[in-house]
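This week, work through this protein record:
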Amino acid sequence: MDETFRVLVADDERLIANNIAKNIERINPAFHIVGIAQDGAEVLEQVERLLPHVIFSDIKMPVIDGLALFAILSETRPEIKKIIISGYSDFALVREALQNKAFDYLLKPVNRDDLRNVLERLADQLYSERMMLTPEKPEGADKIVSTIQAFIKDNYAQTIDFSSIANQYGFSGSYLTRIFHEKVGLTPQKFLIKYRISCAKRLLTDTRLSVQEVGARVGYPDPFHFSKVFKQNVNVSPAQFRKPSEESAK
């Protein structure tokens, strides 16, 4: 098993980005810098090639800024851990970044102790995700795909890092996506969403949990994000979906 985690650093000031990248590797050898970008568009291009586990990004960058970048990644690559870097005057923007599933934030100039703390917590969470994976390496695409399906069904309420799963079998995330799609007809991420939504529909119909509680139980702790994803897949909001069953119970 690869014991390191791939990291992208993004800052439009190259010197600052290089300094942060060097400090990350010096402070915690579990993290390996695989790329440095100077705007959000460059990050998105590198994400597809380098499959990072973690992205450290300045909040203010040209082309695509840190907020827009994190909003995009929250939808397309939610398994990536995102750390925002900002100045003291940007706290309102930091709060918005946290709402877009940022793992944490660091203030400029980045303090080494703060960076060490963030890296330790990142490593703990990423290692925990890896430990959740089955240790056996089944042979053959059919067995790999069925194992991953079972893993998703057992852990759908948690954050699932498909890059780490692919890493367990010694291949890239894009290869995992391809073989999974060939066997199931969906990408792993879409299979996860579909399974979460099916569980949410059952909970909305059969329980008196609030919509927010249902979302949290199926892996969407942010109620606004849960409602958005649910409506994209069911064409009605969770509350609207629940109404017919509530009326029939009267």
User: Anything to note?
Assistant: The beta strands are 5-10, 31-37, 54-58, 81-86, 104-107. The first helix runs from residue 14 to 27. DSSP finds twelve helices and five strands in the chain.
